[in-house]
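hey so i finally got around to running the thing on that chain from the lab meeting. sorry it took forever, my laptop kept dying and i had to restart like 3 times. anyway pasting the input first so we r on the same page abt which one it is
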Amino acid sequence: MSDVTLIRDGHVAVVELHRPPANFFDRDVLAAIVDAGEQAQDDGARAIVLCSEGRHFCAGASLADGSGALDPRAAAAAVYEQATRILGLEIPVVAAVQGAAVGGGLGLACAADFRVAAPGSRFEANFARLGFHHGFALSLTLPRIVGRPAAELMLYTGRRVGAEEAQTIGLVDRLAPAGEERTVALELAREIAAAAPLAVRSMRRTMRTDLLEQVEAALAHELDEQERLWQTEDCATGIAASLDRTDPTFVGR
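ok and heres what got predicted. didnt touch it at all, straight out
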């Protein structure tokens, strides 16, 4: 099976990521997601449900690129190029979030217009716990969704936010029963798709104009900061602790 599939459900397109259980992405996977979304909108779909196979929505990025090279900046830059394309889709996207949306996975969820989750879902901007700067345009998307104080709290602490709290702060738009995330996401997408499609596209362009005008500069800044912090002792400590499932002790170097 392909890493990304596209099926139609009436006026709704379902774009599904197939890399269970954690559904890590790289540049090629994100490109396939955007290609599917662009194909769907060109074929007349009015809304997209973005979902994943397995236990988790997405645990973030695998930074090795398709050629096997291990240049983190080049791999991250290629990923962020596709993130820009996702944000530029012309029809609304509803993310069905089961399990974890962590790091870049949170960025992918926040690139959607709406998020549906269940009581077992969790959202985590874990970058500060790894010792480096956030990416995937979370500088723009997360504050737009939850407000600056809540976004800064998530970013500065790297804490896990459960689905109920996420709904309280506006990160989750619909709370579904356990295992029903995709069903509820489809219901929301169908509600959107029942509205006048030209009007919805026009409104979405208006609502996202400032975001799209700022995204290139934001991603460039995020990448510069990531590259600088990847060289630090704290980053090595944070990544090692994550792999060992231990608590890191940071020293500020």
